[in-house]
Amino acid sequence: MAPTTPIISGVHHVTALAKDPRGNLDFYRRVLGLRFIKRTVNHDDPLTYHLYYADAVGTPGSVITHFPHPHAARARHGSGEIRRTVLAVPEGTLGFWRHRLGAHDVDVREATRFGADRLEFDDPDGMELGLVEADVEEVGRPWSEDGVDAAHAIRTVDGVSLRVRDAGVTGEFLQSALGLSAGEREGDVRRFTLPGGGPGRRLDLIEDAGDQHPMGAGTVHHVAWRVADDEALTSVADRLAEHNVAATPIIDRLYFHSIYFRVPGRVIFEIATEGPGFDVDEPMRELGRTLVLPPQHEPRRAEIEAHLLPLDGD
Q1: pTM of the full structure
Q2: Which residues contact 278 (CB under 8 A, 6 or more apart)?
Q3: Contact 32/89 with Cβ under 8 angstroms?
Q4: Region label for 33, one of left (φ > 0), alpha (ψ between -120 and 50) or beta (otherwise)
Q5: Residue 231's closest CA among 217, 211, 252, 250?
């Protein structure tokens, strides 16, 4: 099937599983310096936190979220999953980040991919992360937190890498259904991009015949790609149907509307609208300070608050 015109414009957010909500909050806020923008619960499992981190205003593309569950087992990584999430920082700042991560006892490896130096490391649960310098002058709104000033702040998700057993089938689907373009190959990695390239528009596809393992703490649950509005979301759903890919109905996630589906290779993708945004249920200046619940779970507030581990002292 011929490549299609893209509707999606880049990454919206990445969501992963975690174990300790306090450790998760400490790492993403105190070490990576992201803004804690939303303290809420999983819409589908309201006794589990859903913690959101982003830039100063929750710009779509800058958002990383986690479902931390104290009883979650640590994941074994394998094929059929999103492996490394790479975050973009301003040019000339990798030295700052190398020193900062080392000062927080984070094991940092230096690597080069497609000509760009980057730092690779894991979060406390083993989620694979990276930092790469990029031209982010016009990207998002930087946030200053705990020694990370605006000049060094993480600005957006740069891209993700997928490991699948048949990269040919997955790659064809990325092009024909979602409008990504196949680009350079480096070893066993083929880079796909959305028009314009740059931060938030990159996906590295790796063929991996290894075993697939159940999700656990440290696994990326899904990557969400952004579209402008519900009309675009419906257009993507129609394209998926043309490719005989089953997607969920449009779901109201309060901060955005979305659909979910699995790409060939079993990896979960979400398509999410840019709005309404993260200030729909609390003022922008108050983001993340109190527990906000989806309206359908508000009647259970007392039960939910009694069950969740307190994040006091954050």
Answers
A1: 0.97
A2: 37, 38, 52, 54, 57, 58, 255, 284, 287
A3: no
A4: left
A5: 250
